[in-house]
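Changelog note: in this version the structure field was regenerated for every chain. One regenerated record is shown below for reference.
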Amino acid sequence: MIDKNRVQKTKIARYEAAEAQKVIDAFRFDLKSPLESMEYFLNLYEDIYCKKNRLSTAAPLIGTMCIQVPEEIIRALGAVPVRLCNGFYVMEQKGSDFMPAKSCSLVKATLGMLSNFESPYEKNLSLIVHPTTCDQKTKAISLAEEMGYQMYHMEFPRVKESEESRRYWRASVRRFAKELQKLMGVKLKRSDLKESIKKIREAQKVYHEINGYRTLQNVPISGSEIFLMTNAFFFDDLERWTEAAKEVLKEVDSRANRNLSSCGKRSPRILYTGSPPIFPNLKLPMMIEQSDAIIVADETCSSNRLLNDFVSVDEWFLYDMVDAVADRYLKGCTCPIFTRNEDRIRRIKDLIATYKVDGVVYQSFAGCQVYEMERHSVMEALGKEGIPVLYIESDYSPAQGGQLLTRVEAFVESLKARRRKKK
């Protein structure tokens, strides 16, 4: 007798592998001047998503639904955090079985992945941690619980300016640390948390050093490669990721010294913001750079916001460190879920100035209400500064490719025309 579920899962696995391989091949053969050091990350994605190998770790896996989950604490307790946000079109289609058609593509794809029980780590998750940030994820979590996953809900404030919100979030993080200790059967030690903070900080420092080269006139690394590298941080071994990123840094430094660029001399400089590019859904960043532009900065939770802010510790005592970790995830956050979000607009303006940006591409996944709603205030603020913005609403479907490419190419040409007029 044919097992229909097994047949369906096998078919989904093949589609997933094909999606991943197509993007991996594009990085290897279609980029103008690809970095050789990116092979580590391409091989990693190939190993996990094409060859279907499991993550090589004996440590317990803790799934996270958002970058607001404090992974310093997870790592200090001997577990490995893996971010579950999914970028596969086949998984978005699978998630449509559970969620309304107008739901966010990322949330549908994540739920589709969890329902499939065939990804490299979902079977082995000890816990999934969900901070109450995204409303759609919050509602989808009840469906994940029905699938048999153990969930932990972290209460996250929607206002960050007040002292009350700061105390509320610190209490939430402390409670999370206590509950995770019970689950793991391990005591949170001062030395382990200090070491965890330092290891993550080392990874962040390498990322910041690479980012510094993107301020150059001849940019030695593409934005698509940055997204590829930072997406790997979601699930890769922390120390291996850091060492691989150091190899990228060496190559970027070498190319900068030889005045080599990943783009043309007249390529417009783009800031990318909005819904996060998640592998393999990197179609829009790659379209931008295949249209002779270069992404020099981003304000997204799959790259800049993921690794930008450091934990700032005054006293290396256990609960001082826990509070410092909590502050990192609230104070620096520029997610549009907040009631007021002047910080995000300020951050975008700072990036535009620092990286000498010519124009902004603002993407919103269809159904992602907070990014859709906030685009008005962002576009109004940037309009006053004379910064051109291309707003794109999309899903994971490859069918949009031609239409999107036409709009991207027209925007890039308009930026080139602006440059010529200024001269």
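Spot check on this record: Residues 192 and 291 are 47 Å apart (CA to CA). The chain has a mean pLDDT of 92.
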